[in-house]
TrEMBL record:
GO CC, any one term: cytosol
Domain Shikimate dehydrogenase substrate binding N-terminal as annotated: residue spans: 9-96
Pathway of action: Aromatic compound metabolism; 3,4-dihydroxybenzoate biosynthesis; 3-dehydroquinate from D-quinate (NAD(+) route); Metabolic intermediate biosynthesis; chorismate biosynthesis; chorismate from D-erythrose 4-phosphate and phosphoenolpyruvate: step 4/7
Protein name per its UniProtKB record: Shikimate dehydrogenase
Length: 284
């Protein structure tokens, strides 16, 4: 009998997610009975306060694990029994598995962004980088950026206190002065080598740009974690100016590669999953 995996994704506005198809096709290729379901808070008319009940229901239905996305990556921390070292250091969880009756939180976003960054912007200047957003995904991306050699990261968020908390966490892990909560976006962008958007701005349901177009220039590289649409307004504007860009597809795929391995206990074929993701987007 084929091994069975039942997984899902909890988040808001996730109907366009490519994650179910990525997991299920890789499961098929490996001879697994792999079912991946969307648990969309918007469709269910719920918010993150429903997380305790949703986790309990998933346990009762024998889910193998869950992916967690916006706006739940930090809210879920209080509901877990254990955290992986990565999740504890980052302070955000995007993958939950059940082991021996315990809920264990992992973070595969950090690895996912780092792999995409190495592949797409490996030679890019990285002395000073501006990051928009300090939420759950932002925390993972910020850790990845500093681990990949960014000299100084300026973090901007609508909640300045959240940006400051993330900067403090990063400085504890990577050394004093490596991160700061930004206060003057114009000045930071003028001095920056690169810009990373980790906010939901640019998603189909949240159109727009996280920074004014006037702050972009050809010498800047621009990275995005939003992947639906794959070309956000930010990337489209940046490319028109001649910027090097990195879309959110690689992070989406490589975080899924690691999550697949956590759910199934089997090594995923990363190139096969990347090819599948690209085929889904070219067929739109």
């Amino acid at each position: 009998m084929k091994p069975r995996i039942l997984a899902g994704l909890i988040g808001a506005g996730i109907q366009a997610s490519r994650t179910p198809a990525l997991h299920e096709q890789e499961g098929d290729a490996q001879g697994l009975r792999y079912l991946y379901r969307l648990i969309d808070l918007d469709q269910l008319h719920m918010d993150s306060s429903a997380l305790p009940d949703l986790l309990t229901a998933a346990e009762q239905m024998n889910f193998t694990g869950l992916n967690i996305t916006y706006p739940c990556k930090q809210v879920i921390l209080a509901l877990l029994d254990e955290l992986s070292p990565e999740a504890r250091g980052i302070g955000a969880v995007n993958t939950v598995i059940w082991r021996d009756g315990k809920r264990i939180g992992h973070n595969t976003d950090c690895l996912g962004f780092a792999e995409g960054f190495r592949r797409g912007l490996h030679e890019a200047a990285r002395q000073r980088v501006v990051q928009m957003g300090a939420g759950g995904a932002g925390a993972a991306v910020a850790h990845a950026l500093l681990a990949e050699g960014v000299g100084q990261l300026s973090i901007f968020d609508v909640d300045h206190g959240r940006a400051q908390s993330l900067a403090d966490n990063l400085n504890q892990h990577f050394g004093a002065g490596r991160a700061q909560a930004g206060s003057d976006l114009d000045s930071a962008m003028t001095a920056a080598d690169g810009l990373v958007n980790t906010t939901p701005m640019g998603m189909a349901k949240l159109p727009g740009m996280p920074v004014p177009a006037r702050l972009l220039r050809a010498a800047l590289w621009v990275a995005e974690i939003v992947y639906f649409p794959l070309e956000t307004e930010l990337l489209r504007t940046a490319r028109a100016l001649g910027c090097r860009t990195l879309d959110g597809g690689n992070m989406a795929v490589f975080q899924a590669v690691k999550a697949f391995e956590l759910f199934s206990g089997k090594k995923a074929d990363a190139q096969r999953m990347l090819d599948h993701f690209q085929s889904m987007n070219t067929s739109l």
